Amino acid sequence: MKKLASTIVGVAALAGVSQAEVWNVDPAHTSIGFTVRHLVVTKVRGQFTDFAGEINWDGKDLTKGSVNFTVQAKSINTDIPKRDDHLRSADFLAVDSFPTLTFKSTKIVPGSGDNFKMTGDLTIRGVTKEVTFDCTNNGTVSAFGGTRAGFSATATINRQDFGVSWSKALDNGGLVAGNDVNLDIEVEAVKAQ
Questions:
Q1: Nearest-CA neighbor of 170 among 48, 55, 37?
Q2: How far apart are CA 147 and CA 18, in angstroms?
Q3: 89 CB contacts (<8 Å, ≥6 apart)?
Q4: Where are the domains of the chain?
């Protein structure tokens, strides 16, 4: 009888534990954008258009979750084909040698309200560095036959840290292409069924 009672208590305790669930990134409603200074005086905007991602969380507590993204480097798009070809070359992303960019979260820390910080390993050109994103949980909604969650994330990285070092100096001391890359990511993820 004691054994049966212990088993029932154990099962009841497990039932109260939230289990991480898989949420797949919806590429049709997700954007991975970036901004870089050009000639110091303006910004060039671009995005990656081919990627896959997975979020594992219980739908409530992100700190117990994880995020994994893989981006196809050749999908870089700034709407200028000549510039995009240069960005794919060995001067920048070297897509023939390094076809993917990856991110894997290592820590998620809650902030105020729906905000949180997500730290993880970002790999570009085979170089892995720790990066922290400022994030917002935009909530969940039941739509189109499933449960969807939205997230926003921003971070600034120095491209030199990843071996992306091409540029030319200007007479005023600035660079043709700035070193700081501002990442701006909007994610819509669908709970796997």
A1: 37
A2: 17
A3: none
A4: 20-191
Q: Tokens representing 100?
A: 């993917």
> Model pTM?
0.83
Architecture of domain 20-191: Beta Barrel (2.40)
Q: How many CB atoms lie within 10 A of CB 167?
A: 16
Q: Cα separation of 73 and 71, whole Å?
A: 6
Q: Please report, in tens digits, the pLDDT of each residue of the chain (193 residues total).
A: 444 444 343 333 333 335 779 999 999 999 999 888 765 567 788 999 999 999 998 767 778 889 999 999 999 999 999 989 988 999 889 999 999 999 999 999 999 999 999 999 999 999 999 999 999 999 888 877 788 888 999 999 988 888 877 665 545 555 456 677 899 999 999 898 8
The pairing of strands 42-48 and 76-77 is antiparallel
Distance separating alpha carbons of residues 101 and 110, to the nearest angstrom: 26
Q: Is 57 helix (H, G, I), strand (E, B) or coil?
A: strand
Tallying the residues shown for the chain, one arrives at 193
User: How far apart are the C-alpha atoms of 45 and 111, rounded to whole Å?
Assistant: 28
Region of 113 please: left (phi>0), alpha (psi -120 to 50) or beta. left
